Structures are given as C-alpha cells and as structure tokens.
Amino acid sequence: MSLLINRAAVRSLHGRLSLSLGALALLVGLLGALGAGLVVQQMGRQFNQDLQAAAASIHPAPAQMPLRADASHPMPHVVIQTWRPGDGALPGHTSDATVLLPRAREGFSSVQGANGNLWDVFALQAGDAYVQIAEQRAVRNDNAWRVAMWTAVPVLLLLPVLIWLIRASVRLSLRPLGAMGARVAQADLNHLEPVDIRTAPEELHLFLASINHMMARLVTLIQTERTFIANAAHELRSPITALQLQVDNLRNAPADAQDERLDALQRGIRRTATLVTQLLGLARAEIGAESPPVAVALPQLVTDVVADLLPLALDRGVDLGVEQLDDATVQAQETDLRMLV
Question: How many CA atoms lie within 13 A of 59 on its CB side?
Fold first, then answer.
C-alpha cells in the first residue's frame, strides 16, 4: 500500500511538493526541538544546582532580616524559607538572609519581595513546619526567552540552506513541466505527433489531452488544406490553359473575328472567376463552414463547362459537345456538380 501511495505521489506535482516540503519542515522541526531540548536540559541542570545550593545554605534567619547585600553577593535564583510554630511573620530558617519574602498561601502563587522583584512560590505544610520555595520571575522569563531563541536559532542559521533546498525541491518537482513544454515545442506542421501523457503528472493529464485533441484537429485541417490545394490546382489548370489558348487565338484571329473571340475570352474569364469563388466555398465547406445547397440549372452548367474546355478540345482535335440537354434543376453545390461534369 505504501508503495502505491509513493508512486501516486511521485506522479503528482501536488504529491511531490508535499513530500519534499513536508520533509524540509520535519527537518526544521526536529532541529528546533533538538535545540529546545538541549536548552531545557541545561535549564534543568541549572535549577537543580540552584536548589542544591539553596538547600545547603539554609540557616536560621536573623532577627534583623533582610540583611543588606554587598556588591559581591548576587541575587539568588532560588530561595527556600521555613516557618515553625512561634516564628511569627519572619521565617525561622532561610537560604538567603538578604531576601525577605512574605509567607505565601499553600500551593502555587506569586509574591513580591522587599526589593520589588516578583517571585513564583510553591508552599506546603510539612508536619509542624511550613516550607516555601521561591524562584525569581525574571529568571523564568529569561529561561523562556532562551528556549524560544534556541528553537529559532536552527531556522535562522539554516535559512539560506532551506531557501536553496526549497528552490531545488520546487525545480525538481516542476521538471516534468519543462520536459512536456520542450516536447510540445518540438512539434511542427510536418510532425504533429500526440504527447504521451502516461508519464506526465496527473495535474497535466487534462491539459495535455486538450493539446493532443488540438493537434489532431490541426492535422485534419492541414490535410484538408493540402487536399484543397491539390484539387484547386487540378481544377484551375484546364480553365487557365483554355484562357491562354483563347488569348493566342485572339492574337492570331483576323480583324473581323476578334470581337467574337474577345467576347469568348471575357466569358471564360468570368467563368474562371466564378470557379475560384466556388473553390473558396468548397474550402469553407471542407473545414465545417459548408453553405446550404442551391438550385443549379444543369443545362447552363454543362454549357459553361463545355465552353471552358472547348479551346482545349479544339487544340487537341477532340470533338467535344453535348448530344442532349434536358431542362433539369437540382439542389446541390454548384462546385461539386461542375467538378463532376
């Protein structure tokens, strides 16, 4: 099952980006957790040392408490105080006589010392003794900032590497897009082959299928165009040759026959122009813009075709004519009927 999921993810751009960026996020999270864990571990050792030092320093509290601390005496991180029956407001024993804290309620609470510092206190009744352990709020805040800093340090230090890895991961994940684009760019009018979408990312299947459908239509249009050009060349060859013969006949005709042959040449030119128009209509029909059938008079159509080809027939010694012309009209494309005749 995991193999199928991995294969599906590899074939999907979404899956590739999710896997790569998720792995990078996991790496950053692990490094941040490692840094935070090291800091918390160090803080725990420091707190144990503070507790040990405070416990070793417990001694009876003087009556003039708090004592004035000299410049060499640091403010303790942790203070332990105890009260026994008869001690009154001042503790009977303390770990540091320079710090005077009021007796806090049992459990967790916060109190303010004589110097204005805030302390977080835990107090409990142990037999006939009342014990409270206090830690400076400033020390706790410093520790919280240290944890936050050491959580962010791996991210800040690895930020350039992470940016490079993210860019490389995105570039690697999007490489199939470049490959497909290059493959499509290689297509030309003579080699319009469909793109193989089996190896493409799933997100591109619909897009590539549309491109393949467009290529198939383009191939059809190109083939239709080539067929039309061939047909047009074939259909125009005879009328143009006939016009050339009529021009030659006109040049060699006697003066009294020039007007008649000039009229024939003009009719041939008009019929050729009509044929060109009809061929253009045929081209539109072949690409799907076919015009509706019209009423075509067969006698006139046959007469025009014979007149167009008559100079060629005379030049080749062919007796070209029509033995019978019935008055008939059909609904059809005139170009198709002209080509048929």
Answer: 9
Torsion sign, CA atoms 15, 20, 23, 29: negative
Q: Is the peptide bond before 91 cis (omega within 30 degrees of 0)?
A: no
Specify the pLDDT at position 3. Answer: 33
How many CB atoms neighbour CB 283 within 10 A?
A: 18
Q: Taking the alpha carbons of 197, 201, 205, 210 in that order, is the dihedral positive or negative? A: negative
CA atoms of 149 and 143, how far apart (whole Å): 10
Amino acid 189: pLDDT:
67
pLDDT in tens, 105-159: 889 998 888 777 888 999 999 888 899 999 888 888 888 888 778 777 777 777 7
- CA–CA separation, 66 and 81 (whole Å): 13
CA distances from 243 to 240, 257, 262, 264, 321 (A): 5, 17, 11, 9, 18
Q: Classify 128 in phi/psi space as left (phi over 0), alpha (psi -120 to 50) or beta.
A: alpha
Tokens, residue 294: 């019209």
Q: How far apart are CA 292 and CA 285, in angstroms?
A: 9
Q: Which residues pair with 122 in a beta bridge?
A: 108, 133
Cα 221 to Cα 195, 227, 229, 283, distances in angstroms: 19, 10, 12, 10
* pLDDT tens profile 204-259: 777 778 877 888 888 787 787 778 778 777 777 777 777 777 777 777 777 777 77
* The two structure tokens encoding residue 315: 């030049």
**Contact indicator for 97, 150 with CB cutoff of 8 Å:** no
Q: Is the whole model's pTM more than 0.70, yes or no?
A: no
Determine the pLDDT at residue 282: 67
Q: Tell me how crowded residue 129 is: count the other CB atoms within 10 A of its CB.
A: 14
Predicted confidence (pLDDT) at residue 317 exceeds the cutoff of 80: yes
Per-residue pLDDT at 192:
72
Return the domain boundaries, the chain. Answer: 2-42+146-173, 59-139, 217-340
